[in-house]
Amino acid sequence: MPQQKRPIRLLRNLNAKIAAVPMMLTATFVFAGGSLWTVLYSFTSSKLLPRFSFVGAEQYERLWAAPRWNVAVENLFIYGALSLIFQFVIGFLLAALLDQKIRFEDTFRTIFLYPFALSFVVTGLVWQWILNPDFGVQSVVRSLGWTNFEFNPLYDADIVIFGILIAALWQGTGLIMCLMLAGLRGIDEDIWKASRVDGIPTWKTYLFIVIPMMRPVFITTLVIIASGIVRVYDLVVAQTGGGPGIASEVPAKYVYDYMFHAQNLGQGFAASTMMLLSVAVVVVPWAYLEFGRRRHG
């Protein structure tokens, strides 16, 4: 009987599967082919045009010896860690508040999600104005009487990455809130009723019952946030252009500058490969958690 069911399952929605074949082949060719091509040419001395002149790991040695790349990696680590923590925490707290069936829930949800509809360039320019010391937050607060107040993160090399983080949180937290809210709405109402009957505090219900049940939502959210962290580029260019100096440099900007401005494709390919490796570190465990355990579970 099981041997007869398997062919029948494979024939279900056969037309849809056949129609999806060209798209799957194209996506596989473009992604896998492009990735392999990038990795291969990262071991060459390509400059303006790709040229297969093998130089071993020379490009990677130059990459990790470059102060600019090390600053970019450090910035990405700081930005990524804080972005991940704050987006998770703020997004979950906002979702938990909206899940209380408050009045004007639709209005608040729209307000929180609206920034995500804007492009990163627009967001970067808006927050560049807001954080400008001449007519932004610092200027407004000083006009109210606090003349010694200072808040100009985009012009301070030590804290410029935090100015970019503020803009990223403003834009991305609304999406995380919606994902978390969808997860909370999927929790059976009987669980809440049982916890209230048993006298379990609300915070314990969230911590020991609700959050473990939302594991799939958390994993999906983690992948979305991590992919956005690795490819952050627009916000940096719009807000600081990588400055002051190279203080706000990020890997994506490093890749773009070396491939299209410095005309050093080999170095750009090496940096791209390191970015691809960082993405694989996130995607592979996620794929195992989502599909590997499901297959064995």
From TrEMBL:
It is found in: Cell membrane. GO terms for cellular component: plasma membrane. The chain crosses the membrane at residues 21-43, 76-98, 110-130, 159-184, 205-230, 269-289. It comes from the Bacteria. PANTHER family: ABC TRANSPORTER PERMEASE PROTEIN (PTHR30193:SF42). Belongs to the binding-protein-dependent transport system permease family. This is Sugar ABC transporter permease. It comes from Phyllobacterium sophorae. The lineage of its organism: Bacteria, Pseudomonadati, Pseudomonadota, Alphaproteobacteria, Hyphomicrobiales.
